[in-house]
Amino acid sequence: xxxxxxxxxxxxxxxxxxxxxxxxxxxxxxxxxxxxxxxxxxxxxxxxxxxxxxxxxxxxxxxxxxxxxxxxxxxxxx
Length: 78
Fold this sequence. Notes:
- The protein is of the alpha+beta class and about 80 residues long.
- It has two helices and three strands; from the N terminus they run ααβββ.
- It has one domain (about 5-15, about 20-75).
- It has helices at about 5-15, 35-40; strands at about 45-55, 60-65, 70-75.
- The chain has a three-stranded antiparallel beta sheet with strand order 1-2-3, with no helix packed on it.
- Strand 2 and strand 3 (about 70-75) form a beta hairpin.
């Protein structure tokens, strides 16, 4: 499995009409769900709905809608 930092680097360098790099600024500093929620709040309305799904007592998936786009960001935490 690829590390978060490697996946983020690939996402930022994507040229297939993905998310603009400006939308992802600061994401590399997130190491916890709390950091991630702070990053979302600081996004200034770039994001729409948020779904946090518990997979078990230790693992959660977070699905984040990118407002005005047909794109989503998905995060897994343990």
